[in-house]
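agent: user wants the structure for Acyl carrier protein from Luteibacter jiangsuensis. delegating to structure tool.
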Amino acid sequence: MATQTAAQHELAELIVTSLNLESVQPADIDPEAPLFGGELGLDSIDALEIALAVSKRYGFQLKSDNPDNRTIFTSLRTLSDHIEQHRAAA
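agent: tool returned. relaying tokens verbatim.
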């Protein structure tokens, strides 16, 4: 498993808290592992919850009609990278 950066760990904590993933520790989320269809068992409703939590925490919206969403939500790393890019621009 790859090591989480500080930004990835912060995001992992947000995901675990916002989705009430009681059996998952934020540090146990592999930054390279798929967020959906993988070990976490997340689905499209969870994606909406994550988008809402990201909006509240980081001050910008992940739009549901963004054609890049599949790429953005691929893994903890890709979502964290996207947030860092847009957080700086906001």
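agent: one observation worth passing along. The mean pLDDT is 92.
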